[in-house]
Request: fold
Amino acid sequence: MQASRQEIIMNFSTPPSDDDLLVLARNAISNFPDEFAEFCKDLEIVIEDFVDEHTESLLEAEDPYEVLLYLQSGSEISPGIERTNSSENDVLRLYRRAIIDYWAEMQEDLSDLVTRIIFEEIASEHEYTAEEIADMINTHL
Reply:
């Protein structure tokens, strides 16, 4: 059974802040289908303005505006360097300036956009195919 969708009404006279994006991200995750609940358990969400140079290079991005978010495994000390023992949570980093730029370009609801990009990242990290992700978005989001 799909959880009821909680509507958040935000009117922006200025670009959304870190706190605004954090609220949208948490709301998005709380409304994901039950099968994703385990993937998001203990997920830490961090908002940053831009991707750092090391992660940008690791993701082979040509521009910091290309990277909207990055899901870092709790077993990584830094991107690409694994811990042998880890009790750290997974960290989802959202890059505020890139998301705002993408939002302006796409002209879609910011809440829907944040929900979709987080969902796509988590699903692809857990090896869902592009077709499965598209079907789940159409069905659940």
Observations:
- The chain has one domain: 18-78+87-140.
- The first strand starts at residue 44 and ends at 48.
- The helical segments are 18-30, 37-40, 53-58, 96-106, 110-125, 130-140.
